[in-house]
Specification:
single chain, Rossmann fold, 2 domains, 13-stranded mixed sheet, 38% helix
Amino acid sequence: MVKLVPAFNFFVLEICNVILYIVQRLTRRAAPTIACPAGRVLGTFEAGGATVAFRGVFYATTPRFQVPQPYRPAGLWLNPSQTMTPNAQPWIIIMVSGPLLLSLGKMLAQFPWRRSIIGTHCPAQQLNIFAPKDHMERSKPLPVMVVVHGGAYFLGSGNQNVQDGAHAAAAMDCILVMVNYRLGALGFASGDGIPPNLGYQDILASLQWVKENIAYFNGDEDNITLNGESAGGHACMLLLANAAHLTADGQQLFHRVFAQSAPCARTVPLAVCEAATAQVAAALGWNPSSSSLLSAGQFLRSLHPSRNDRLVLEASKLTNEHMTALRGMCFMPFVDGTVVKCSIYDGLVQNAAAIRQVPVLMMHCRNEYTLFRDLHLARFGRDDDAALKQCVTSVVANFQHNAALASTLMTLYSNRAAPYIQTFGSKLPATTAFLGDCFLSVPPQHAAVLHSRHGGESHILRFDVEGSPFLGLKAGHFVDVPYVFQNTARCRLICGAAFKPAAQQELLRIVKRFVNGQPLPWPAVDVSAAKPIRNVQVLKNDPQDAPGVGQLTVVESDPFPEYFHTYESVH
């Protein structure tokens, strides 16, 4: 049976994005232009005149399956259309694995308007820049935050309304840069003739562009924070772990990292990525036994540009199948030995000397996996016991089928009377808690502890503010994003009609301090003893959630210790 509820929810989100985009376009006013080494950039006043936005700025040319090169404008302007062309993916694929809607998605992809549904390969990558209206009049350059969007490395855009920087730039009093990069198979396929980790290389190219040009927007090139949520947070931590902030000539591309819900334990094996690349090639007609003797990578490179849409569709379908089966993403950064030399955990240890001077703010949500519950666990209905058993078995297989660990996890999460489990609501709470901890809650905390153990400074922030009851998100994955970017009023479907303005202001104060390089108002992770003291700052849903304190934030030295330390023992 086709699951329609998730499809309906995401469809409403898409409609809201279209409406907000139209409103933005109608309310823009022309602003002064900026001349920088890369070219001239057109600006517009937005957010009631409080912000100058420079949208759709080209930073790199990216021919299909080729490494990015600095963008050289044919004309005078770097952003003549002032519009960012998204590396869009078929949104319908992420909603369901049901055959009816999947077939509908394929059918729609054949119509003339298909590019509005799934997009196509962009021959050049873009970024959006947002600055306070008087940024050029400041006597001191403004701090910069470069944002890498999330979306499991196969969907999303630096132009999405939930992460739009028009309001945040004025509120944070900084310059925000939202980055696009190649996604899915176009960004992370692996095969003969395909350079490795092209999407990752795009992000590096964008950071180099910012380093060379942001001073002309009166941005401080020596005060750059790298931010990302979900896959974007993973990319930020992977860049840090590989010491990618230090270039060959000694330049520092970013100076601190603010990662949200980063799945730091995720690393796709090279063999998995190569197999996925071959599977996509086969779906497009490649036959390894044919007389042409083309490899999968060579076949994909030889495809006519008119087949880009089909390539994107097949790769997205495969990614959805992998994620629904809890096998993770099949197209994401992989360790190739040259561009990406190590995983996040390994790099935080091996490159400690080079990265310990980079402070990290690691934020995660209390109920991370609620966003994916209907997508990945629909087949279990309300049978929480069966879902938990299968998911624990699947995950523990990655730890050499450790029977003792599986037994511990089953006992720990089967206790639905535990206060932590109860925060996930009534629908599959045990399984949702387990998957959230396993993939999105414990890994970023562990990365923060690792960074601290090897001389770095890490702070941990937990987001307990609950989202829309309509979507049943609780304090789930992605709910924090509109709070960070001051877009809660425009994203009520995600945040709920009764969103928390006080929580938004409190989070603004924290992020603003971090971006400005000021000390955060709670202790960093303490690793002076054998057992780490995480000192998690908790942004509460309501002051009443912190008895005796009456504030929105409270520091918990070792929250949910039994859940955290069970995983810590195997990392």
